[in-house]
Amino acid sequence: MTSNSAPLGYSIVPITNRDSDRVLDLLRRFFFRDEPLNVCVGLLDNPQDTCEELEQYCMESIGDGVSIMAVSPNGNILGVCINGTLTRDEKSSENKNDEDECSNPKFRKILKLLSTVYRESNVFKQFPEVDKLLDIRVVSVDDSCRGQGIAKALFDKTKNLAKELNIPLVRVDCTSHFSAKAVARLGFDCVYTLPYSEHLDSDGYPVFTPELPHTCVKTYVHLVDLDGSQ
Question: In Å, how far from its chain's centre is CA 53?
Answer without folding.
Answer: 16
